[in-house]
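Tip: read the tokens left to right.
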């Protein structure tokens, strides 16, 4: 894969596919700031190399129709502030007005195109739409890591019409972290999984079973593993239909010599919202009328010891229903363990990231992936269609 430094950008119009999936109410929310901040280095690097960025992005939900609530216009001011680049807003992403604006764009300036999803051709990957976008520039840069799993026009269609293409700095950082932790990890590699469900992460478990030295399972996901071992889970959330698959996984892990760590105690309570009723019990003694809502203190200690000698750790999924502080300790303990570990650490997942941000410990991790579905897809051992196109 090529990166910005590998191409001559001077004097060229650079089509930058960015992740601009902001809130949909015509004003930037605090969470949107992160995406714009992450795009800024790529834009600055392009302008410093003499290129003229034409920025493209989508803003959900899927529609194919013009909806002023999903305009990308609110990004312009903040992007300009963050990059110190004069960013103009184009009222559409294709058409004569846009072509004219692009033609007149002076060096040192950038254009942000309106939401790609206002055109049905974006999501249907219409070749004509992709070609129309391609006429606006000479180089294609994919910096939309979290959209790179989508087979949409701006992700997989457009690069086919561009001779010169490469990954932006955000994609570069994500791929470097992925390579360092999953593809070529310093061993032992320890994978920590949690969150709500086994089903959404089962493909990852299968892939990781072939790569990891240690597998640590917490969260509601652990409930299904414990149930598969014959433990009575009371009213806890678990996926009964997945028990046969989990049993198969146990066999694969044993055959491959992967060490598996499951909770030995849990914080139980009547519901994830209940206050003042949580208590720790050994998993063998979960009350029939209670739910296991977090890992217990003995489990936190066990997991901490297991992580001690790891050189690389990948983590996705909270250890408990951490939105209620009564069931947050397992997750905050894990964050503290990893923040102070000497291992290379990669974290992915919306809720996992937000738990780390809440504790303001993001800087103690080697990399926090913003990939969402794209991150999970890489963990499943699959490639991302948008990034594959950069090599074609
Ligand atoms: P991520 O977004 O980090 O990938 P998931 O979406 O898989 O994580 O799961 C996060 C959710 O899992 C959280 O909202 C949390 O409340 C829930 N969760 C974790 N453990 C439990 C549990 N034991 N019981 C109920 N919900 C849980
Ligand atoms: Mg989630």
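Filled-in amino acids:
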């Amino acid at each position: 894969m090529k990166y910005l430094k590998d191409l001559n950008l001077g004097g060229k119009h650079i089509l930058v596919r960015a992740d601009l999936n902001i809130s949909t109410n015509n004003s930037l929310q605090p969470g949107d700031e992160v995406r714009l901040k992450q795009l800024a280095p790529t834009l600055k690097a392009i302008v410093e190399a003499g290129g003229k960025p034409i920025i493209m992005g989508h803003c959900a939900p899927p529609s194919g129709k013009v909806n002023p609530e999903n305009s990308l216009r609110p990004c312009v001011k903040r992007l300009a502030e963050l990059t110190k680049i004069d960013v103009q807003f184009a009222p559409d992403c294709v058409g004569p007005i846009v072509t004219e604006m692009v033609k007149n764009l002076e060096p040192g300036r950038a254009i942000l195109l309106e939401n790609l999803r206002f055109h049905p051709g974006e999501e249907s990957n219409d070749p004509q739409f992709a070609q129309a976008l391609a006429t606006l520039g000479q180089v294609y840069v994919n910096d939309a890591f979290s959209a790179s799993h989508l087979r949409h026009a701006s992700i997989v269609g457009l690069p086919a019409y561009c001779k010169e293409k490469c990954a932006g700095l955000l994609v570069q950082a994500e791929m470097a972290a992925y390579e360092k932790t999953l593809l070529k990890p310093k061993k032992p590699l320890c994978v920590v999984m949690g969150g709500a469900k086994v089903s959404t992460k089962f493909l990852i478990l299968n892939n990781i079973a072939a790569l990891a030295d240690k597998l640590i399972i917490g969260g509601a996901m652990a409930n299904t593993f414990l149930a598969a071992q014959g433990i009575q889970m009371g009213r806890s959330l678990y996926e009964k239909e997945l028990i046969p698959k989990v049993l198969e996984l146990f066999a694969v892990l044993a055959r491959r010599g992967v060490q598996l760590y499951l909770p030995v105690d849990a914080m139980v309570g009547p519901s994830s919202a209940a206050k003042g009723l949580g208590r720790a019990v050994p998993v063998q003694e979960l009350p029939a009328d209670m739910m296991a809502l977090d890992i217990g203190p003995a489990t936190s200690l066990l997991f901490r010891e297991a992580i001690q000698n790891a050189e690389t750790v990948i983590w996705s999924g909270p250890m408990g229903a951490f939105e209620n502080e009564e069931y947050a300790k397992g997750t905050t303990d894990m964050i503290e363990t990893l923040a102070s570990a000497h291992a290379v650490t990669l974290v992915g997942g919306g809720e996992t990231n937000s738990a780390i941000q809440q504790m303001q410990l993001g800087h103690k991790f080697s990399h926090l992936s913003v990939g969402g579905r794209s991150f999970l897809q890489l963990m499943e051992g699959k490639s991302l269609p948008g990034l594959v196109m950069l090599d074609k």
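The chain has a mean pLDDT of 96. Residues 13 and 231 are 61 Å apart (CA to CA).
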